Amino acid sequence: YKLTKATFVGLSYYSRIEHELNNGASRFRLAAETVPTANVDLPPVTTLNLVQYFTPQWSVKAFLNYIQWSVLKKVTLQNTAIPIQPLIFNFHDAVRTGIGTQYDFTKKLG
Questions:
Q1: Contact assessment for residue 20 and residue 39, using Cβ atoms and an 8 Å cutoff
Q2: Residue 91 half-sphere exposure, CB side, CA atoms within 13 Å?
Q3: Fewest CB within a 10 Å sphere: which of 14, 56, 62, 80?
Q4: 90 Cβ partners below 8 Å, 6+ apart?
């Protein structure tokens, strides 16, 4: 969204991704005929971006991420040769920030 001629703000949301792992790669094989499977959820991420142009070539960019790691509770491997306890996670949601500057030396690279 364009706040002013030189200031932009953006908001994005990436929803939770549910993975169903079947017929795992060979590095996961525990026995000749046994291939583990598992269901894994990756967290939703909300991001706020801010861009401020000081000149047509020079800008400062900042972001704030809110990552909902708490949705990842546990992973249980199934179809294994030996019984395996679920992997229990005690993840907490996280906030990540960053700021940087950009200078465009030439419009040909932009």
A1: yes
A2: 18
A3: 56
A4: none
